[in-house]
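Lab notes, practical 5.
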Amino acid sequence: MVAGVSGAAAEVWGPEKARLFSALAIVGYVRNLALYVSGETHSSIDRAVRLLGVRLRRIPTDADLRLDVASLAAAVADDRAAGRRR
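Output from the prediction step:
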């Protein structure tokens, strides 16, 4: 059995193609993810998230460097309205 793939899929497509379809499913899932971070988050997070293919949403902070809850709620609502549920 191929890791992450059902035995039936591996039998129908062969192990190489079954692995490919499994990897594509994971990539499709990851590309639909969003990471909400503070506007103060270090730039290394930008690079890491970009490499993973995840959307990065920077949320503004208040004077005490706390996330602006209204901006966070608006960003989540925008993502959901665009059909992004994860």
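Observations recorded by the TA: Residues 1-30 form one domain. The beta strands are 34-38, 55-59.
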